[in-house]
Specification:
This protein is an alpha+beta fold. Helix content is 25%, strand content 26%. The protein has a single domain, classed as archaeoglobus fulgidus dsm 4304 fold (2-Layer Sandwich), CATH 3.30.2170. Strands 3-2-1-4-5-8-7-6 form an 8-stranded mixed β-sheet, with helices on both faces. The chain is globular.
């Protein structure tokens, strides 16, 4: 499935050019729900690196939304073309993700990304970047905080509190399992802040991470 990019841009660019692209794409983000009421398929992505960062490895997994069973998957490796620079990781990771999607036959209704959505200094983490490019609704599901401040959520699964950047609400800190470290959830594109935690929890079983992220990580680890 070759994704037709809504706002294509070059990848072999300078940091200054990347910043300009981030600001441009961030202005296109929609935080209104634009996914089907009855979801059929949800995707998870996992990105890693090999050979000292010279090779990017991207796993894309498609799950049936109701059963959370894998229906399609692909792992792709390509040469890394962008340096490691905090705040610009999507420019390093997304080329491999987009390449992996070319071998996927089932289009997802929504994508859960291992990373940030709008909880980013320029409001364009990997989930937002991927969402604007592909026009597919996305959510950022990060294991750690990049920016923002928050109180502590309760210790039970489903407890949450808002993540703020100044006065801006940029996400939630969500307890996805009793008494474990919380996840940092933020809308990527075409998903409202209100809907993010509900959708993530619907993809989460007895583990800290949603099944989307777990399945993609397992695929990447097995094929490494």
């Amino acid at each position: 499935m070759r994704l037709k990019l809504a706002h294509p841009h070059p990848w072999d660019i300078s940091i200054k050019q990347a910043k300009e692209i981030q600001l441009q794409l961030a202005s296109l983000i929609s935080l209104d729900d634009a996914f089907p009421k009855e979801l059929s398929h949800v995707a998870g992505i996992d990105v890693g690196f090999e050979d000292g960062g010279k090779v990017t490895r991207a796993a894309v997994v498609i799950l049936d939304f109701n059963s959370l069973k894998i229906v399609d998957s692909n792992l792709t490796k390509i040469k890394t073309t962008f340096p490691y620079v905090p705040g610009y990781l999507s420019f390093r990771e997304l080329p491999a993700v987009l390449k992996a999607f070319e071998y996927i036959t089932v289009k997802p209704d929504i994508i859960l990304c291992d990373g940030q959505g709008i909880a980013h200094p320029r409001r364009l983490g990997i989930a937002s970047h991927l969402g604007v490019l592909t026009n597919i609704p996305t959510i950022g599901v990060a294991k750690s905080r990049l920016i923002g401040s928050h109180k502590q959520p309760g210790q039970l699964k489903g407890d949450k509190c808002l993540l703020y950047d100044g006065e801006d609400k940029i996400g939630y800190v969500l307890r996805s399992r009793d008494n474990v470290k919380p996840l940092y959830i933020s809308p990527g594109h075409k998903v409202s802040l209100k809907s993010t935690c509900r959708l993530v929890l619907e993809c989460t079983t007895k583990y800290r991470l949603p099944e989307t992220t777990r399945a993609a990580h397992h695929l990447a680890s097995e094929m490494k």
